[in-house]
């Protein structure tokens, strides 16, 4: 009875309470319930973490007022504000109680369906992520393929929202969203393919297992610590930012240009659902990145293995989310043509070259001795040289200028 | 626009370009800097027509001023460009002093320069912050800019009693004499300011996305700018050496040693850089002013506050406000209130070329161009 297997023991105990005929159903329903609760709470605390972190980045405090309400049924009243940790629940209550406005001209069906569809599809991705050594909701052989297929459907929902709102801003945002998501689907998938090539499987738990082991007990064999894996991880990060519509690629909801983009005509709980779906999508993509590049549920050092695997997964996931928040607090937004140019002229060629790089890596797996250094050097060169050349092409003749003064 | 402005390429609608979309951006759009409306005609994301619509904040400023005494209009000038009340006060005082032939003591002249340059810092901080907000940062640069702005506003408040509506200048001097402690605090703030600017510039000026979003966007050549009567940093970004502090030499500006930065391209990036470089020059002016501030009265002892009746005539007083040439044209008929009172608002006139700058760019660029022009609707609509 260790912490590692505790969730499984609890699950088996609950499943055993039911008759044999229903056991498979309960088994799956449990997985669904766990994903919904865990990631629902994760979403809630992601919002508060984002607001507080952005606040700290901007030398303010962020929300810190929402404590526990004064309830007469409680024998005591907690005066402490709990650092604003109950803010997301207050937000949820507010969103639920707000008026739900549907524009007169809107396509009622599409307008209603869009938030439902987007939440449903953004949740599908969680089904195949290995959250721990034995914690996989659905063991699919082609988990990776399924993940991308499910994620692609969210674009449909964004277009539904933009089109169904009958609002010019929403329409522009929907067009932008489609252009952006189609552009970045390709580098996102291409950045993952090298891993599939090297590991030789589409099954996510197997990819996580393939990254086990340590050199000298301290250097983990994660893909991010190889040249091609590092490049792939960076491409994945940029594409994931764009796929989840976050700054600097938050064009569909560019509040300085399009008010709120495809969310302009949404209010109350529908808006909250969109918000939720955005964070679910971000979390699922981060989980995929953790699984594929950051060793999944593996501990970084051998002596830290006593910490259960699902905690490692969650810690890495939180790290990715914090990184995304940090980016949001720092960078500016790109323009739509620059955004697509970045994808087609920079990320896609790099990702394709990276695929060749991974092929080279797989071919030279048998090299040993001094040849190992040659292998690393060649692999690194395949990443760095095109990056510099393409980067120079992309920035063109843009540089900070010097100015003259009137005499 | 006159024909001399050069051939302006106007997009032509043909049947191969599909439908045009007309979007009314404003007056409640989050990034129009107040209640301002742009009727934009879009072809996809490109702008083929843009019509600025303003007047939502019209407050009848000029007509009210004709009905009140000369001094009674001073608080109203605060509300013109509500970020730079000190400059507005000074511009109005300049016009009235010209009209009445009123001299100003030395200490007041120095104080006016100090206040005007602090105001310039405040305004440029705001502009840069809002510009980055339009560029899509989630408020981070804006809040850092506001942190510095707050310090200056605190100084204004301790001096004049109000953070933004200072109502500080009088005809023939200033209203309050700053204490030595105030001067020490202001001097310390100004000496620390370049450090903040360096930090800000390190983070933002060389940023790749910033360069991509602003360089070559909203170009304005010198000829167009001069023809449209654009003044201030927007004109100097196009490479025209025209700074009223140098041209007119009003106040005590000839005594100060400062340089006028000039741009070469006239695009949004140049307009942004003009502001940053001007802030550095303002810091220099302020340091000289704190060093040379003489003792003495802050009001001309002969100045009349009550029963102020300038002789019949007219005068136009102007100064280099943070946004451009701010002028007041006054006609006196010998009565206690002006017969005609006219403001030359830089924001309104700088706005006139918005369409020429935005044509052919995307809607996202139009927002950035508007942000770089630096308008305040209180001054546009008056």
From TrEMBL, chain A:
Major location (coarse): membrane
This protein's GO CC annotations: plasma membrane
UniProt cross-references to Pfam families, sorted A to Z: NADHdh (PF00146)
Name of this chain's protein: NADH-quinone oxidoreductase subunit H
Organism: Lacunisphaera limnophila
EC number per UniProt: 7.1.1.-
Annotated family: Belongs to the complex I subunit 1 family.
Listed GO biological process terms: aerobic respiration
